[in-house]
Amino acid sequence: MMATKTKETKVAPLTVGSTAAMPTAESGEAKGVVYETKDLNLWYGEHHALKHIHLTIYENKVTAIIGPSGCGKSTYIKTLNRMVELVPNVRIAGHLAYRGRNIFDPSYPVEQLRTQIGMVFQKPNPFPKSIYDNIAYGPRIHGIRNKKVLDEIVEKSLRGAALWDEVKDRLRDHAYGLSGGQQQRLCIARCLAIEPDVILMDEPTSALDPISTLKIEELIQELKKQYSIIIVTHNMQQAARISDKTAFFLNGEVIEYAETSKLFSNPADQRTEDYITGRFG
Amino acid sequence: MDKLLVSKRMKGRLVQNAILQAIFFFATVLGLIALMLLLSHVVMQAIGWLDGDFLNNFPSRRPEEAGMKSGLIGSLWLMMIVAPVSFILGVGTAIYLEEYALKNRFTAFIQTNISNLTGVPSIVFGLLGLTIFVRELGLGRSVLAAGLTMSLLVFPVIVVAAQEAIRAVPQQLREASYAMGATKWQTICRVVLPAALPGMLTGAILALSRAVGETAPLVVLGIPTFIAYLPSGVLDTFTVMPLQIYNWTGRPQEEFQHVAAAGIVVLLGFLIMMNSVAVLIRNKFQKRF
């Protein structure tokens, strides 16, 4: 914890003067770095969706990615666990390392990568199973069968997602009986059950009401003590409230990447300022 | 709006609506009446002939002793081959096409061919079965040869039904599974198949009931229409209900028309039972995502 705290202050001056071309950390920062992105490009067919992305993502931080629709922010977050490859006709070039290891390396099975990286989607997507079976899904596919171990994981994960007290008496009930906000916290619990290192969140509150949104935001503050969180959001206020660092994407490029407080109070790029003050987007 | 024009047209529009409603209602009722007439005619003819003995007797030259035992049991034997073979082949193909296959021209080619197979006349499948199973593989006019032929016949129907069931499983459920590090097979086995199974079973049962009612391919295979014993294995020869009925309707004696009617009632009862099971499964497991 202490180490990351000091790094935060150390990194800040580096990113203050960042321009569009070089918002990455200097070398020698490998410790505490979760993702290192260098010159990442992605095409959907002919459409160049990500252009020369340079981005370094740090441990135990909430990193927000903001930008208007179609700017590539969801594409980027889905590249981090290679889910983007489910889209047909995707082509990727460039370097993207998770904990120093190239995620596109053929000897690095995508299943192994995704075991380290949890993901929460835009729309709550629980399985049509019981609450218990939803949480136990991840541990089970990784081979855990022991009932007692599973019980412990389910309780721990539900507590971690601040859902335990609401559902502890009806673990065998169908997950579709939960409210939208509860379903989304169930999905967070489900991804905690595989004990990930990073949690990717793709607009996790866009389908939720304000109260459920608030609960998820509070939860994110709790989770960042243990996990590195990368969150895509449409909502600039949300990014300002919950994140430590913010990257602003526009037309497939990273325009600015800085401490959240810095980016929102004193943006270095005119386009960032125009976006956060609501002049477009 | 021109209020006068509106009120002038109003009556015409209402009459038009009433006339069309009447036409659609008539169309619906007509189908129902035809079915009722057919059913009542058959049932009337069958009354007095359909009893326990009819189900328990072998066919006979004497109409009052004739029964359906060999056809009924033969149809069950046929299903025992068709159900597993066509379900495994059909669902396997559907899983491959929907989950594994790359979306390229080759896949599209296979897809088109399977869809076209559902429209191929059943007699063509009979010729295929005669060539491959009866002659080439030397299975003769056996339960196995007929079962494999019928499996080929209903296979495309099961593929299409299973594909639709798989496609109805929301993509976001697969994504949730993949995102946790599940392999493709784990995702298929634990997420896709449980969600798609009711749809698959419904399709499979409807396909099976088609196989039970089908006659033409078995005529081509040369399956006998009159057999007074039961098969003791899949390589024995046998007969099925529709063939038995076909045999009776071709007889000159008036009484055999009643025997045939009784046979039709049994066959219809059998098919209605199967279709009801399909409807029950669909209703019981109908889950909206």
Summarize the structure.
With 281 residues, chain A is an alpha/beta fold. Helices cover 38% and strands 24% of the residues of chain A.
Explain what you see.
The complex is a heterodimer of chains A (281) and B (289). Chain A has 281 residues and is of the alpha/beta class. In chain A, 38% of the residues lie in helices and 24% in strands. Chain A is built from 11 helices and 10 strands. A 6-stranded mixed beta sheet of chain A has the order 6-7-8-3-9-10, with helices on both faces. A 4-stranded antiparallel beta sheet of chain A has the order 2-1-4-5, with helices on one face. In chain A, β1 and β2 form a beta hairpin. The model of chain A is unreliable at 1-29 (pLDDT under 50). Chain B is mostly helical. Chain B has 2 domains: 2-46; 53-285, MetI-like fold, CATH 1.10.3720.10. Chain B has 11 helices and no strands. In chain B, α3 (69-100) crosses α10, α5 crosses α6 (143-167) and α7 runs antiparallel to α8. At the A-B interface, α3, β6, α4 and α7 of A face α7 and α8 of B.
Topology of this structure?
The complex is a heterodimer of chains A (281) and B (289).
Chain A: H1 2-16, E1 33-44, E2 47-58, E3 62-66, H2 73-80, E4 90-98, E5 101-102, H3 110-116, E6 117-120, H4 131-141, H5 147-160, H6 164-167, H7 180-192, E7 198-202, H8 210-223, E8 228-232, H9 236-242, E9 245-250, E10 253-259, H10 260-265, H11 270-276
Parallel strand pairs in A: 3-8, 3-9, 6-7, 7-8
Antiparallel strand pairs in A: 1-2, 1-4, 4-5, 9-10
Helix pairs in contact in A: 4-5, 4-7, 5-7, 7-8
Chain B: H1 3-46, H2 52-56, H3 69-100, H4 105-117, H5 122-136, H6 143-167, H7 171-179, H8 184-213, H9 216-221, H10 241-249, H11 254-285
Helix pairs in contact in B: 1-11, 3-6, 3-8, 3-10, 5-6, 6-8, 7-8, 8-11, 10-11
Name the quaternary structure.
heterodimer
Under the CATH scheme, the architecture of chain A is: 3-Layer(aba) Sandwich
Encode the helix/strand succession of chain B as letters.
Answer: HHHHHHHHHHH
Structural class by SSE content of chain B: mainly alpha
Pfam families (chain B): BPD_transp_1
Subcellular location (chain B): Cell membrane
Keywords (chain B): Cell membrane, Membrane, Transmembrane, Transmembrane helix, Transport
GO molecular function, one term (chain B): phosphate transmembrane transporter activity
